[in-house]
Amino acid sequence: MSTEITSNIIGQLQQDAQFPEWWKCAPVNIPFFENKKLTITYVGFEPDQDRSFIADADQAIANFLQLTATNRKAITALAYKNCTDFLEAVEYDEEDQPFKQLNDPHEIWNFIYPNEVFVSRRTKRDQDMYVQIDCECEWEQEHGLQLVFRQGKKITRISSIDGHVTEADAYDKPDEEDELLSKFHESGF
């Protein structure tokens, strides 16, 4: 079996030696993060099991690569809320003071550092493709921050990194009760 696959969107992906269902490309410019170069990994791809995976993943990553810093700014309230919710849930630490003193919620992006992009098929319910960006963030240093976009189009989850692409999956609740996921509409961004 080949250890390389080709994406029509991001080029060659190499099979990960440790995780054979993971396929990584060379770093790609990510317009959402002002063209920061990040590795994109297709996760869960078994060539003999899911023949539409590459085409579906390519469509999701093509959608995601259309998102820009303007789209990132549009979800600032969600990123800021993640920070403030976390700070309210933990004991006060003097190192958290810069977050409490932000004059503009958009400044929260100065404390978020994207590391890698993952594209995977949801294993439950809709079986759709989700693009997940794993980030480090200064307020949640242990678990970081993930941004998840259904079909690469629209944010459907922002949370600590926990391996789930939806709140519905993370908390075993119906999709209709997942606030961001239930607002997703397939047409448009």
TrEMBL record:
InterPro entries: DUF6985
A Pfam family that the UniProt record links to this protein: DUF6985
Annotated DUF6985 domain residues: 10-164
Protein name (database record): DUF6985 domain-containing protein
Domain of life according to the entry: Bacteria
Biological source species: Lacibacter sediminis
